[in-house]
Design goal:
By secondary structure, the chain is an all-beta fold. It has one domain: Immunoglobulin-like, CATH 2.60.40.650. The chain is about 0% helix and about 40% strand. The protein is built from no helices and six strands. The strands form two sheets. The chain has a four-stranded antiparallel beta sheet, with no helix packed on it. Strands 3-4 form a two-stranded antiparallel sheet. The radius of gyration is 14 Å and the shape is elongated. The N and C termini lie far apart (about 35 Å).
Length: about 80
């Protein structure tokens, strides 16, 4: 299963002030494979940036990853 992701901040339709904006979300994969990278586009797919993954709170057992991972990215807001 390819990595799936959702944006949790900012909320859809939210007004954001100009300047730096923190975009946050979560991502998951399937088959017990860990998420190792999340790419985010803020310009409709013209360019992509690699988000920072939050450290896992607990190590996964048996070499498998069954949970989601949090991510965030700082981007300029026009």
């Amino acid at each position: 299963l390819p990595v799936q992701s959702a944006i949790t901040q900012p909320r859809p339709g939210a007004a954001v002030p100009p300047g730096e904006l923190t975009v946050k979300g979560y991502a998951w994969s399937g088959g017990g494979r860990a998420v190792v990278r999340v790419d985010v586009s803020v310009d409709g797919g013209r360019s992509w940036q690699v988000a920072r993954l939050q450290p896992q709170l607990q190590p996964q057992r048996h070499g498998r990853a069954w949970a989601w991972v949090l991510w965030e990215l700082q981007v300029p807001a026009p």
